[in-house]
Amino acid sequence: MHEMQVKVPGDAPREYTITIGADLLSSLWPRIKASFGTHRAFVITDEHVAAAGHLETLLGGRNIPSFVIRPAGEVSKNINTTVAIIEAMEKAYLGRDTVVVALGGGTVGDMAGFAAAIFKRGVPVVQIPTTTLAQADSAVGGKTGVDSSVSKNAFGAFWHPAAVYIDVSTLQTLDERQYRAGLVEAIKHGLIADAEYFELIESQLDAILTREPDILQTMAQHNCRIKGDVVEADPREQNQRRMLNYGHTIGHAVESASDYEMLHGEAIAVGIVAAGLIEAEMGLSEPGRLDRIRGILEKLGVPVNVPDQMDENKLIDILKHDKKAVDSWPKFVLIDQLGRIHQQDGRYAVDVDRKIVEKVLKQLR
Ligand SMILES: NC(=O)c1ccc[n+]([C@@H]2O[C@H](COP(=O)([O-])OP(=O)(O)OC[C@H]3O[C@@H](n4cnc5c(N)ncnc54)[C@H](O)[C@@H]3O)[C@@H](O)[C@H]2O)c1
Ligand SMILES: [Zn+2]
Quick check: 12 pLDDT over 80? Predict the structure, then answer.
């Protein structure tokens, strides 16, 4: 088992512990009780995570009020589910002395975190992520929220967890496609911050794909350290935190143009290759770098090109509507070396000419 701290600066600075291990879930409840002595717990999960047995393992027969989100996934990540969660908490006579426990993937974590942020003006949330994506990314960093019918994460709050427990054993029940897609965020972490970590993933890919607990714990440590460091430096995403958006500008456009048929990590894989091609156009490439990245993504079985039927003009149009666009054109996060962000005047998201992007989209076929 491994522990690390994340310190969030600001008006009310705070610190939380991330605990990483295998087979943690069955012994976790007494630890949560010990950390939140007088608080009463409310557990939020979804139907697949519950069906996989993880809720039972966590609660061990204890009678704890809980909410099982049905159907699981993005379709339920909306304000109606949030209302249902909050009202279930009220009906269970819970008050300001509640601790919300989020057991599940990123959708559960985002929804439970958001419910915790607004219930009685805010109660603590413990995150127990159970997908590769949530363990690598969403459980750390404090972004919570739900979608509107118009856009993703339209409602939201920064609400940092009070604690994070990563049990890599929960990943054993995750389906193969979800498992692989979530690993793309780990590759992203290597690319933006740590060449050695990238090389570790590259050399250990077989063990990663067979879900060996040791390598999964090592990866969780790297992921949390990298994301934790960035969040500590820039909790509100004023500049440096934008580096986590590597591959996400074009990736989000592809995800949205697929009408969310592609999983987030799958679309980000295309976005990472796109970033590599942009880097080549801008003289930021190194020999062999993009081939190695493509090689890993192909071995993962995630897409490395824009799907055939996807219209380029649609992608350009979505890019113009990017929520971080300035003058209707987004900024891009690029690297100039494995593990190093390319900065322009200290800025982590930089200008890329529209013609370069158009050319790159043509190359991605
Ligand atoms: N807050 C952040 O910083 C942040 C960062 C990245 C992504 N996100 C959000 O995360 C969400 C995606 O998260 P996700 O990819 O984890 O999706 P998800 O939560 O929908 O989980 C994917 C599927 O796997 C199932 N599942 C989860 N854990 C399981 C397990 N251990 N065994 C069997 N089935 C399991 C779920 O029920 C679901 O059907 C998106 O809404 C995205 O916006 C948030
Ligand atoms: Zn992402």
Answer: no
